[in-house]
Amino acid sequence: MYNSTLPPFNLTQRWAENSSANSSTCDKNDGFKYPLYSTVFSIVFVVGLITNVVAIYIFTCSLKLRNETTTYMMNLVVSDLLFVFTLPLRVFYFINQNWPFGGMLCKVSVSLFYTNMYGSILFLTCISVDRFLAIVYPFRSRALRTKRNAKIVCVAVWVLVLSGSLPTGFMLQTTSPHYNKTNAMFCFENFSSKQWKSHLSKMVIFIETVGFVIPLLLNVFCSIMVLQTLRQPHTISRGGKLNKTKILRMIIVHLFIFCFCFIPYNVNLVFYALVRTKTLKGCFVESVVRTIYPIALCIAVSNCCFDPIIYYFTSETIQNSIKRKSQVNRSYEVKFSEALQSETTTNLQSSLRNLKAKVFPNESSV
């Protein structure tokens, strides 16, 4: 799970050696994770905060269209920002290797990590499925692709994600000075081996299946189906000709970000759980898993910075749809104005003829 293995090496070496929960004959080689985490999380905080605040401004002020796609993207922004706001606390902890903010805030921070991770995966999947329905089944999906249904799906995603993230986060206990024989308090990294065997291994199976494997298969399937549809020469949209190049670019970026951010962490998480439950044994395997884990975690956290790229491409497609609809509306307005003007002129000429006939009734006989 979230770096849930060992207390800081340079502060608690004696405690780790005396603790039966963390005893091991293998040398730990993941001390590099603390400067790595503090550096990467600082960058993600700055970039993620700026880009997601800009995304909120665009969605609420600049992007006039409100549809099911923007509903999913707004929920994804909220998921990213909730996690981004906790990053300064994590940076402080990994620099000082001490958690002075209390046990409750530690649990909430851990829960928000899983909320962001699997919330992002599921909301990105919702966007992919929505695009699949819009392009492959544009007419039959009209009744299904509504803002009301999108809101229902978002509520279901939040319930599902929180039902997995909150229990995981609140199982974590901050280590007190009484046990570690130092003045440091630890967070994010003291799940015991007993917790892994009894609870966390089952939780990993659940979140990997529901939160990663199924969404990954859906994203790949939807992308393939959309690409096959775009290859057909008769592909059209309701608003006019599809810009296949832009849609193709949007799908490639979406799939690349999804795979780049989430596959390394979730694949390594399976092996990490096997190591922590002693299913996989051997110092070499443990060393490889512990080395890869911090790197994969930093890549996963960077999804907060990459999500706005998906917003850009998706919003660009929405804006093009708005332009096509606006052009159609303007053409109808011009035709209506011309017809109204013609009708008004005809009515005016008829009225003048009637008035003239009444004023000069004998004019025609002169």
Automatic annotation (TrEMBL):
Q: Where in the cell is it found?
A: Membrane
Membrane topology category:
Multi-pass membrane protein
Transmembrane ranges? 40-60, 72-95, 117-140, 152-172, 203-227, 247-272, 292-314
G-protein coupled receptors family 1 profile domain location, by residue?
51-311
Q: Which GO terms describe its molecular function?
A: lysophosphatidic acid receptor activity
- One GO BP: phospholipase C-activating G protein-coupled receptor signaling pathway
Stored Pfam families: 7tm_1 (PF00001)
| One GO CC term, this protein | plasma membrane
Which PROSITE patterns does its entry note?
G_PROTEIN_RECEP_F1_1, G_PROTEIN_RECEP_F1_2
Instruction: Cite the entry's keywords alphabetically.
Output: Adaptive immunity, Disulfide bond, G-protein coupled receptor, Glycoprotein, Immunity, Membrane, Receptor, Transducer, Transmembrane, Transmembrane helix
Task: Family membership, please give it.
Answer: Belongs to the G-protein coupled receptor 1 family.
Give the protein's recorded name: Lysophosphatidic acid receptor 6
Identify the species of origin: Liparis tanakae
The gene for this chain is Lpar6_1
